[in-house]
Amino acid sequence: MRIVVSAGGTGGHIYPALAIINKFKEKDEKTEVLYIGTHNRMEKEIVPKKGIKYEELEIYGFSKNNIKLDIKNIFLIAKAYKKSLKILKDFKPDIVLGVGGYVTYPVIKAAHKLGIKTFIHEQNSHPGKTNIALQKYVDLIGVSFKESAKIFNHAKGEVFYSGNPCGENALSLKPMNKKDLGLNPEKKLVVIVAGSLGSSTVNKKMSDFLSVAEKEDYEVLYITGKSLYEDFIKDKKFGENIKILPYLDNLPALLKNTDLIVTRAGASTMSEILSLKLPAIFIPSPFVANNHQYYNALEIKNNGGGELIEEKDLTSEALASKINLVLGDEKLYTSMKENLAKMSMDNSSDVIYNKIKEMIKW
User: How far apart are CA 257 and CA 22, in angstroms?
Assistant: First the structure.
């Protein structure tokens, strides 16, 4: 089988794309893959290192205040569309998959023009503008949250619940030993992390909370973000149950031994939480497109799998209260894990592969 995969911009798009590629190769080692991404985002570094053939497009997301760039981008989209037509004509794929990011737009449009079967995947509860615009051109749409299907109300093809294949990676990891981080295996662990880069806004509010948490029986691992670590720890000293790190490689392995996570609500994080059935308190970033993190968190909260504090409402008292509520009520905690299990899809890449295979009758 010959497949073209397009995704870009963030790990939330790239890693699900790679999980889908891995499933195709697992099912048929002769699968030929071509990845189409941007010329200047992280996929350009990550994907070729996986031994996957890569083609780049110069294209940018539309801004709210850079009119010159937006005008330039209109011409770049047209250019990217023409280049995509040539790439697809030369490669002759059986299927073209768009797994998120603005780079997928000209690729999927070109595939539609050429009569090639198409699939797109939506990682967020509130679909992005690119996928909304593409819905009338594609043959198949997979969604990570069941409620998202309602928003694709002008879809040309079938919309199905696929889950997010990113979470499967977390399930396959060996649990990290808490002792390796100087943590007590006998105590409950709360991990607090505001994305891989951290958040200066959240860090300012967390300093007060950690002083309050010193008096609690649980332990806290707080991850500041690499560039923010030195400023955060300067002139501060916390109790023995508080551990501060700038970054933790392989965090999902530790989450398998974690009792509660306080986190942003990006797509990759959500998929890991669902797969691991890990109760969470979400502090969605207010600085993302379409406020999609808020809607991601709200869907899990509304289904009884987590709690939500908007960043504007974040105080040490509010967070301490939520943590004590979740950890202090065994019945509630068990219910949250059960509700997360109902929402999770642990074989997402298999579901996607089988749907695509059925569609193209390969």
Answer: 27
